[in-house]
Design goal:
Beta-phosphoglucomutase, alpha/beta, phosphoprotein, Rossmann fold
Length: 244
């Protein structure tokens, strides 16, 4: 009993906030980066980065998209730069790389913890014979899965590096989830998407997936349902207990 409709044969999991608690580290790293950046600006709205900003502009999106979208909300526009820009560069990619450096330091300091309910669900899904993929906007997906001890569960990984290499649109576009389904050899209607980000739930709905599970880690159950989740749970273990 894994709480999915008949006909679903594959699971596509977001990583940060769904399988691991690293969404909290991402939020801390974004706040550190943006608050420092804004403090040195003379233009735009320079008020501190908030949890609302994280949910509305950054969560679930590829790194450069998050920088671009948040700064646009503050009336600030930067040159794009290049993916290998120095973290000190005043470019979209430079600010994104600054955030990534902050995140890697936090992972080194605090480690990565998988949610116990998510591990239980992965075990149940594997035992039921479902295919398992991870779809994350993070370029650190491989590292986070390895540190969390989740690599053995995952047959396919689509991450931020894949998004760049394949020129996929980031969430809320469905491209990365569709790439995950293709890699597993299933049609979108045969796959369930598991997401905690509003943009990720939108992507699952836009892609025509068979079931979209919203994971409410940030007290936004109503918004997850509004964006297209078929069901919202506090923890993936809730699905094992019969929630549908």
């Amino acid at each position: 009993m894994i709480g999915l409709p008949d006909g679903v044969t594959a699971c596509l999991f977001d990583l940060d906030g769904v399988l691991t608690s690293t969404a909290t580290l991402h939020q801390i790293a974004w706040k550190q980066t943006f608050d420092e950046f804004l403090a040195h600006r003379s233009d735009g709205d320079r008020s501190p980065f908030t949890p609302h900003d994280y949910a509305a502009y950054v969560d679930g999106r590829p790194r450069a998209d998050g920088v671009r979208t948040f700064l646009a909300s503050r009336g600030i526009r930067l040159p794009e730069g290049d993916a290998d820009d120095s973290p000190d560069a005043e470019t979209t990619n430079g600010v994104g790389n600054r955030k990534n450096d902050a995140l890697l330091r936090l992972i080194e300091e605090k480690g990565v913890q998988p949610y116990s309910g998510s591990v239980a669900y992965l075990e149940a899904a594997r035992a039921a014979g479902l295919s398992i993929g991870v779809v994350t906007s993070s370029a650190n997906g491989e590292h986070v899965l390895e540190v969390a001890g989740l690599t053995p569960f995952v047959q396919v990984r689509v991450d931020g590096l894949t998004i760049v290499e394949q020129r996929l649109r980031g969430k809320p576009a469905p491209d990365s989830f569709l790439a995950g389904a293709r890699a597993l050899g299933v049609a979108p209607g045969e796959a369930a998407v598991f997401e905690d980000a509003l943009s990720g739930v939108e992507a699952g709905r836009a892609g025509g997936f068979g079931y979209v599970v919203g994971v409410d880690r940030a007290d936004q159950a109503d918004q997850l349902l509004e964006r297209g989740a078929d069901v919202v749970v506090d923890d993936l273990a809730d699905l094992l207990n019969g929630a549908k």
